[in-house]
User: Fold this.
Amino acid sequence: MQPSHRVAFREAFRFWVKLGFISFGGPAGQIAIMHRELVERRRWISEDRFLHALNYCMLLPGPEAQQLVTYIGWLLHRTLGGIVAGTLFVIPSIFILLALSYAYTAYGHVPAAVGVLDGFKPIVVAIVVEAVLRIGSRALKRRIHLAIAAAAFVAIYFLHVPFPLIVLSAGLLGFSTGTGEKQASSLESPAPAVIDDYAAPPPHTIPSRARALRTLLVGLGLWTLPFMVMVTWRGWDSLHAREYRFFTIAALVTFGGAYSVLAYVTQAAVQTYGWLTQAQAVDGLALAETTPGPLIMVLQFVGFIAAWSHPEGMSPVASAIVGALVTTYTTFLPSFFFIFLGAPYIEILRGNRNLTAALSGITASVVGVVLNLALVFGAAVIWPHGLGGGTNWFAAALSVVSFLLLYRFKADVLWVVLAGGMVGLMRMFLIR
Assistant:
């Protein structure tokens, strides 16, 4: 089957801009939004191709949702498409979090902002719950898939097993049990996708040694040149140069998403370097969870606060902005590198039954992990002070209404998110 049409670059550009502003809910919510928009509504990519790309991104260190959108942009419009998709996914959150970080350090909590964020949080709960149902209905087609998902949930929710170990175990179990057969669900799509399961691979997805070498050299150059400028400007032992080195290492060695990254970074930033306090790190996570973009943007907040507190001859604002941008650049640069270097090889292995079996096991484990996030985040929003501390009935009601709008009535995520923010803002003014 050949693609029914091509996606114009202009059309894709408009969607990537929109996605950057509506990508709430952390990786689970963002993957749910992408699945809803790209697989079901727009039919730009088929179910199996989407899950194949997602499984590869789940194995990488760094933000899997941003890597997934880069992968899909690359499939649609080559390297430029991947750069545009991955960058626009992050840009709105950079400026929003910069503004929130400045307000946090300079003015404390602004009531209007608190009200809007209180309206966003229940929407995020609804998005994540919908992700469990939507992805689970397609990924759990066999008993072994259901068993893997259940085991992944128990492992991460009750036993606190590290996420990378869960993914590795699920992949090995899927490989050993042969769960890689073609699923019938992908044949039941209402219309052929632009990137479907049977079209010949585009020429730019075919790997070559020359392309891999160019990618390596460009990636190293994009890391080295800004670092040389930073060292020349601020000095090798300056805070900004240390941030450049530290967050590069964090981006390369921290698997398991934003929560595992934050655990590693918080331990070093609070205990080893003294850049910020534990309470500030928690506040940063709350800000990142209620802004669009990857949850790993919490690291930008850490870089901002560290540079604000240690300006080293600059004004606190200028130092903080440089620290935030340095942190964001070094956090996301490796993600582009991983996709452009590895995706061509993952694409040619798409028909390999052994690889498909392993990745099917990973997909099943993702359902269990997303269910864990739904429960943890839902409990934090609806019972913010614990089960004995009372129920936030406003958040509970808004979560239920939002879920019905998204799941039953297929409402556009953007309008649901905006409506939630307005409701939260109006509630704040009414109760004051």
